[in-house]
Design goal:
- This protein is of the alpha/beta class.
- The chain has two domains: about 270 residues, Aldehyde Dehydrogenase, Chain A, domain 1 (3-Layer(aba) Sandwich); about 190 residues, Aldehyde Dehydrogenase, Chain A, domain 2.
- Helix content is about 40%, strand content about 20%.
- The strands form six sheets. The chain has a seven-stranded mixed beta sheet with strand order 14-17-18-13-12-19-20, with helices on both faces. It has a six-stranded mixed beta sheet with strand order 9-8-7-10-11-21, with helices on both faces.
- Helix 2 runs antiparallel to helix 4, helix 2 crosses helix 6 and helix 5 packs across helix 15.
- The chain is globular, with a radius of gyration of 23 Å.
- The chain starts with 5 loop residues before the first strand and ends with a strand.
Amino acid sequence: MKEYGMWIRGEEVFTGKREDVTNPYDGKVIGRIPIADEETFKKAVEAAEEGFKVSKEISAYKRAEILYRTANIMEKRKEELAETITLEAGKAIRFSLGEVNRGIENTLFAAEEAKNLYGEVIPMDASSGGIGKRGFYIWEPIGIVFGIVPFNFPLNLMLHKVLPAIAAGNSIIIKPSTYTPITSYLLGEVFKEAGLPDGIYNTVYGRGEYIGKMITSEDRIKLISFTGSYDVGKWIRENAGMKKVLLEMGNNSACIVDSKENLEKHIKRCAIGAFANSGQICISVQRIYVNKNLYNEYVDKFLEEVKNLKVGNPLDPETVVGPMIEKKEVDRAVFWINDAFSEGADVLPSLKIDGNILYPVVLLNTTNKMNIVRKEIFAPAVSIMKYRTFEEAIEMANDTDYGLQVGVYTNEISKVNYAVKNLNFAGIIINDYPTFRVDQMPYGGIKASGQGREGVRYSTKEMMEMKLVVFQDI
């Protein structure tokens, strides 16, 4: 049984307490990890403190060089990284490979950003009180960053925290999900081979409810970057004190369908958006609002498309829908589906469960009052509802506590303009599904979906402090 240590100061660290990592598809143990105690956590902070002293002195050129090497090594280890993601997260291998490819591209974006942290000259004499003065500001790294990463994108969501931290000149401690820690271990190997100095990248393994209290009370940590559930993010925000907090939380992504043009293509995209990674993506398609004149045709074609999605072993290149992360999540999703059924929803096809696999579910006759529509299901289930007017569709999409991304499918520019003006989401995707994301774009939510933005250019600045310099002529 291979044991994967925590990376602290460039070395593997173990503790007396161990925990197995299992494959959610077949339940087999694929590795074992140590669980951090308070002493280990303090060692990680001390290592990051020392790492920051080194990192902040590394030139932009050198940081970029390290990140370029990191991308090259990830390319060489692409298949190993993808298979690891599939084994510990249950993600279909086709999507795991996509995640690794995105991670490589993301790393290249970070290498470029490390060389482009420009300040700006301030025209001080634009004010009468500033005559005779010259001013500018520069960016400086914030210090120790703590990143908390969920299971569903164990590599690329981790990189969205690690890469901007390194590009900015910070050090970082990563707490991966205990479902998917091996990916973070492999990344540590990659960074070591790429020449990243010890102490800049560190990891701790353990349950969030235990480690969270140590994170929020540790004053040497200057910024917490969290991706996960609303309840946990809210707790971190309320207990973080003066730390800067970036939160990427949930969504119940809506898609408004108002055009028949290329409808089959759109249906294929929405089916993938709803059921890839078993719906365990924060921008999975969960609510589809269809013009009443298109509704029957859309539902028939969507159900037909769902029948064609291969379900099963995530290591099979043809598989689209693999297992959910664990049985209790399957049970939760089934409870929500049955609850909607008891309130009048139709469930198509009939519920089918095989171990941790929940087969794709399409719900009709749902309403915005049902939990399966109002909350984030985070499972392979999607609701299709009809609307009468485009304005009504906008209101239905807005009727949520979340505000991450939404999709609008229409060929009328007036409706595009209306949607952009009236939809209350941070990201509006026109003529594609709301699951769309590329890693250089600003990505983040409003309302219960979070605060701050990811995308290396944007999160790098979030992880830095602005320093103003004003010169008085003598």
